[in-house]
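User: My advisor, Dr. K., asked me to get a structural model of this assembly before our group meeting. I'm new to this, so sorry if the format is off. These are the inputs:
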Amino acid sequence: MTPPDEARGLRARLSRPGETDGLVGILVKIVLLGLVDAVALYAVFVLAAQEKWVVLVVAVVLTVGVNVVYLRRDGLPAKYLAPGITLLLVFQVFVMGYTGYIAFTNAGDGHNSTKSDAIESIATKGQERVPDSPQYQLSVLEKRDDLWFLVTAPDGTVALGSSDEPLEEVDDAEVDGSGKAVAVDGYSPLSFDELLAQQDAILEVAVPVSDNPSDGSLRTADGSTAYEYRSNLRYDEAEDTFTDATTGAVYRDGGDGSFVSDDGEELVPGWKINVGLENFRRAVETPQLRDSLVSVIVWTFVFATLSVALVFGLGLFLAMVFNVASMRGKRFYRVMLILPYAFPAFLSGLVWSGLLNTEFGFVNQVLLGGAEIPWLTDPWLARFSVLFVNLWLGFPYMFLVCTGALQSIPDEMSEAARMDGAGPWRAFRAVKLPLLLVSVAPLLITTFAYNFNNFNVIYMLTRGGPRFEDTTSDIGATDLLITMVYKVAFGTGTGRDYGLASALAIIIFVVIGVIAGLLFRRTKALEDIH
Amino acid sequence: MWVDAERAPALKDAAASFKEDKGVEVKLVIKDFQSARDDFITQVPTGKGPDMIVGPHDWLGKFVQNGVVAPLELGDKAGEFEDAAIQAMTYEGKTYGLPYAIENVALVRNTALLDTPAQTMDDVVAAGNGVVKAGKAKYPFLVGLDPKQGDPYHLYGIQTSYGAPVFERNDAGDYDPNQLGLGNPGGVEFAKDLATWAKAGALNASITGDIAKDAFNKGQSPYFLTGPWNVPDMQKAGLDIAIDPIPTGGDEAATPFIGVNGFFISSKAKNSLAASEFVLNYLSTEDAQDALFETGGRPPALKASFEKAASDPVVAAFGEIGKTGAPMPAIPQMDAVWADWGATELDIIKGKADPAAAWPKMVQSVQTKVAG
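Assistant: The format is fine. Below is the predicted structure of the whole assembly, which you can bring to the meeting.
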């Protein structure tokens, strides 16, 4: 009678306190963990191949952490929290950390990659085709692991050479129908597949045209044609400099992430380096920012505050109306109210920008009988329009939130207030609203933070315009801090500047963080009402 | 290869015959056109980018600045392409791409409303207003303007007839970022005339590209300054159209921007040799360029293919006008120009700014930005 005992023993082991899984649960767990580990293992190999050591360590730590959490018998809360925390680390903390890192570099156009990439790129650019040199037809041959170029000049002469042996004429080459030499005794021609297999080696081959190295050398890009190239820019590894063969100018690593000559000429591309606090200094000193900074900051606060107030006001009002028991057709109205919320915000922005066109927009043409009101091109009307469209986009959310919150407040509360002799307004102000705010206030703060950075509405509706007339920069009446950052860092300069953008993003993050922190502290006071 | 949805079908055949001949598969990855340039720049250095990309030539400056494209030696093939196309694919004396299509704007005329071409902008405005007065049309002249940003691209041809190109070219034919042609005396003349035409009702800041196209297709205007991309819809709408050269305002010839589309090879391509073979020896063929024309409708850059396409008078006319144009500058400094340029033109058209003051102010502002 041993088998049932064993089975019972297993079940007993499985159903210890805190461990509620059945056999299926265990299997699912094993399969899922196995999948996670398999993906992680694959990632480790890929990352190791790319030599991304930091990310690799993070991935390993995360995977081990996940395994420990789920293989342990207890620690139930951790099991529920682990996926969320992992995602938080990957998508929030890592992104913020990376932004922080970029803020201290010169990353952007022209400083896009590593120094070795830059050197390689400059060196290939320095290769110049010898003027008026012929286009050779090429067959690539192999002899004892050495690659040889068999070239046919336009006049029919055939020559052979390799990286170590300068080009020399051959007479006994085998020629195909089109007059192109394809083979020579003692060398084996490469098929296209073999060319592909060795493509990196073939691209490296440079066959000197003569004994004089400054005459240039033959190179190929496609394996079927070759050209004479001369190198105008030579890299000296020992000195870490580029020398221009024609002008004699020497380009040195100037410490700014690029090679610079003595007269200040810069070679492109450069590479990414650490620049310390430079970006933060520029964020404060950039003239484009400085000119309009105050008005943009004021408008950003006004926009975010008014947006929250309007959206909350309308949402709450509608929620109260819908809370009246005798109202009919609630379901229909509710669906209608959710529509603006269900529509992607940036698309709505574009649509509204068409609707508000001065001459041809629906609003002026149809609703206002052909009045030419410059909704988006007059500074004050543009500000109004942005707020209006944002209200249209945002109130359904507040309506939903307030409906939920109102339903959780027992009717007895208002009834009690009425018994005490309070009118409806007083009952609302003194009883309902404070109770409502307890649950809604945190959402209002997040809405504020969201609108502080509401890029979609501004960019799609007005692009920040109309422009201020007293400054030369491309900043206008409806620009928020975030759209201004976008314009300064990506929009209208001579290059994208990821470093500067990251620094500005961090500054904005700190501003919002401080405000939100202060407000949250205030909402704690609200909770004391309970 | 990264390609946008519009071009992918045409490339499929070239890829298929390449696979048949050489046994190498070209994987076409469809990318959103708007983000392709920046994604290419950020992804190539990480080694995750594609081996090849399709795009317009004005991406080239940014590509070179970031070192993400490899030079491409076209050799004797260069002679088989239109000069302007090769010029556009050349940056600082080096060729980087294989061109396949050329596009530019021209003045499209509704022949049912006006049967003779006009030479100058003043003629256009006068003739257009004549048609409007006769009650046969609503607008004398149409050009799509963005109510927020203006549209210097479309108006550029007219502007050049005043001798004020955006950047001057140096002896080697490259655009020189330090010589802003916008600041030439002709620029202000152009600005003043913009205001005049706007007053005459020929330019309207509220008319976007879509509105203009719609109005022209409904026969509401005799003239529409636009590119070949809008022609198929006009023909669908049943209009009889003629393609006229860009009208001049000043004394010089009008030289519109030319946009050249082409293929670029990544500087970190994993299959560099195969990519070069595909681009240089397959996409440069007549068959491939014909196929690209048939799906895209843009005049081919290969001379032999263009000859064939030019049997269509519309293509021929756009091509002829393109020959008078100049490639849009690909230098990175070009990015610094658009915002001020468009906004200033817009303010002048709206009558909000005095042309004599606003234009020099814009030049000043652009100069500061170019200088960084």
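One thing worth pointing out at the meeting: Residues 67 and 147 of chain B are 36 Å apart (CA to CA).

User: Perfect, thanks a lot.
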